[in-house]
Amino acid sequence: MNPWDPVPYSVTPSAQILARCVASGVLCQEDLDAVPRGTHVFSPHLLEADQVADMKRQIDEKNLEMELLKLEKESADVTHSFYLSRRFVTLQQFTSQLQGVLREQASLRQRLMKPLCQQNLPIVADLHRYVVELIGMAVDLIENLESKVKITRSFTSLGPSMTSLNNALAQILTLVTEVEEVSRQVQQWKDLQHRMVTNNNDSSA
């Protein structure tokens, strides 16, 4: 209801307050008449700003909805039952293959733990000499293999030694540079002394 519209047989509270202000001299009738009597009391710029803010809010809401839809679309491939079932089948196949590999490894380990031949394997007498030589060669091979393994394992402990060697080499190079500088200075001093002696001999002659 517009407070400025006259209501027959009734006086609104705002009209009473304005009447008291006019009677006391706080307001005058000209100021009241200058007030617009339309419902749009606010400035049109404020209304436009309010509309712009409302439109921005709606745009932000739509952008948020679009982002949610994009996220849902991207995650649909992961959470969809079709893709999940395919991945589950692939995982089952991989698990079965892994179980087969483990079973083969267990059987292979058992086969390796068993001797390849019986202890009482008969050998022809003519081949005994070759068997003895073969056993000696196998022993030598095992010893060489153990030494190679020890050398290979010692490679991991060569890091600090190489660092110390590099530091010593750097110190030696520094000392060589200093010795070369001292030698150059000594040579210059010798040349200077030789020239001085030569000049003294020439002057005395």
TrEMBL record:
Pfam families assigned to the protein according to its UniProt record, in alphabetical order: HAUS2
UniProt xrefs under InterPro entries: HAUS2, HAUS2_metazoa
Gene Ontology CC: one annotated term: mitotic spindle microtubule
GO BP: centrosome cycle; microtubule nucleation; spindle assembly
PANTHER family, alphabetized: HAUS AUGMIN-LIKE COMPLEX SUBUNIT 2 (PTHR16039)
Protein name: HAUS augmin-like complex subunit 2
UniProt organism field: Aldrovandia affinis
